[in-house]
């Protein structure tokens, strides 16, 4: 009997725990370790920040949901992974041994890399976590009583651009509904070399689509931007040209701001030679397995993926929801193979499917695979995307409560659309 520990109760961790239980059966022990008592559906955080959802609307109690599948839950933070000894140290002083470790922690939010950035000790809001989004809503409520300039964006090194675009466009919609949009100049500041780059070199005509939306909504933008510092009510931003040389400086006043920071790996794994890269992201091979510590697998935002291309201001490659699920299905197949004494050969497709809400409309982006060159790439917009995202939120939360990651009908629907989790012929579980 093997003891499998999954670190992190986010999208990757919950899906991994459920898929592992279905794949390896009840003879093996699965334990999840996570800091919070609840799972939060991260893609809905922008809705929380603008008051269109309450935190409880997008959360699931973790322990009861996992318990129904025979999965133990330890509600405690991880202080350190000790891969040489196949154990983890918890923040309460306990030590847990494992035969296999699945790291799905998500990232550390590197607000500290820009002076004045972030909701704790800084001057900007965040939608990276549900508590952050709820704080952003509290501040937004105060803002609408005395509106002024708004700055939304993504800092240098950021890899998660979708929520910044979503929030800017939803904010515009909400302000228009409140009939105070005319009192709120809006500026979008991003490290991307152009609007719609998304850290992916663009997806279909994402540049044209998003630039058109920004023009129609009177949202000014500044690209190839490096945020030097944020002071109370004021951004200091430098821009670079295509050769990486200084191109200008901007001072932007603001009364409300939300900025996506760069990410790093979490403290529990940072600095462990052979396990992580210099930024603390977990090193994996094409089978989602760490090359040095062969009993460690990883998926999600915490894994090391090189940038798609070099940009004047550093940008990272995003890890979208379906891409994370693709990683999870792959690692489960390969971990199961290892348990059975077989060589795990499954490889993730890393296909990307993104639904971005705009409040009264939406944009859908599909990149198969996410990293170019691609077999399929397109971007579409319309009210149907808003409806689809609302439906997907309800559906995903239902999956988390029911204890399944990929119901049979979802598998067939995605396959019919040509969207697979594992590369054909590389393995299955």
TrEMBL record:
Coiled coil spans: none
Domain of life of the organism encoding this protein: Bacteria
Originating species: Dyella ginsengisoli
Xref: InterPro entries: FAD/NAD-bd_sf, FAD/NAD-binding_dom, NADH-Q_oxidoreductase
Record's keyword annotation contains Flavoprotein: yes
Cofactor: FAD
SUPFAM superfamilies: FAD/NAD(P)-binding domain
Domain FAD/NAD(P)-binding, chain residue ranges per copy: 3-303
Stored PANTHER family: APOPTOSIS-INDUCING FACTOR 1, SULFIDE-QUINONE REDUCTASE
Key word Membrane present: no
The protein, known as: FAD-dependent oxidoreductase
Keywords, alphabetical: FAD, Flavoprotein, Oxidoreductase
């Amino acid at each position: 009997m093997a003891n499998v520990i999954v670190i992190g109760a986010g999208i990757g961790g919950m899906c991994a725990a459920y898929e592992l239980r279905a794949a390896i059966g009840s003879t093996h022990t699965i334990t999840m370790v996570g800091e919070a008592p609840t799972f939060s559906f991260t893609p809905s955080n922008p809705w929380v920040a603008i008051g269109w959802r309450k935190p409880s609307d997008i959360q699931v109690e973790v322990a009861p949901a996992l318990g129904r599948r025979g999965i133990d839950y330890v509600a405690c933070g991880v202080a350190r992974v000790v891969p040489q000894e196949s154990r983890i140290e918890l923040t309460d002083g306990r030590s847990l041994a494992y035969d296999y470790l699945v790291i799905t922690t998500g990232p550390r939010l590197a607000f500290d890399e820009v002076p004045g950035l972030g909701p704790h000790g800084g001057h900007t809001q965040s939608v990276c976590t549900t508590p952050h989004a709820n704080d952003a809503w509290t501040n937004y409520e105060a803002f609408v009583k005395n509106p002024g300039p708004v700055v939304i964006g993504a800092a240098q090194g950021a890899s998660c651009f979708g929520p910044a675009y979503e929030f800017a466009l939803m904010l515009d919609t909400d302000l228009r509904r409140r009939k105070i949009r005319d009192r709120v100049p809006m500026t979008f500041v991003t490290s991307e070399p152009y609007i719609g780059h998304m850290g992916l070199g663009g997806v279909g005509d994402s540049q044209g689509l998003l630039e058109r939306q920004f023009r129609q909504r009177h949202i000014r933008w500044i690209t190839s931007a490096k945020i030097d510092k944020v002071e109370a009510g004021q951004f200091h931003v430098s821009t670079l040209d295509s050769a990486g040389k200084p191109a200008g400086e901007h001072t932007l006043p603001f009364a409300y701001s939300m900025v996506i920071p760069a990410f790093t790996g979490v403290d529990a794994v940072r600095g462990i030679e052979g396990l992580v890269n210099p930024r603390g992201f977990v090193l994996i091979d094409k089978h989602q397995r760490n090359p040095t510590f062969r009993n460690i697998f990883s998926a999600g935002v915490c894994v090391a993926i090189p940038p798609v291309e070099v940009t004047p201001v550093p940008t990272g490659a995003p890890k979208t929801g379906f891409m994370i699920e693709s990683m999870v299905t792959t690692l489960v197949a390969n971990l199961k193979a290892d348990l059975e004494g077989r060589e795990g050969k499954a490889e993730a497709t890393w296909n990307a499917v993104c639904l971005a809400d705009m409040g009264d409309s939406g944009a859908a982006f599909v990149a198969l695979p996410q990293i170019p060159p691609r077999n399929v790439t397109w971007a579409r917009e319309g009210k149907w995307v808003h409806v689809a995202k609302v439906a997907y939120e309800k559906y995903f939360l239902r999956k988390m409560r029911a204890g399944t990651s990929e119901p049979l009908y979802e598998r067939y629907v995605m396959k019919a659309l040509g969207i697979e989790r594992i590369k054909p012929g590389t393995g299955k579980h």
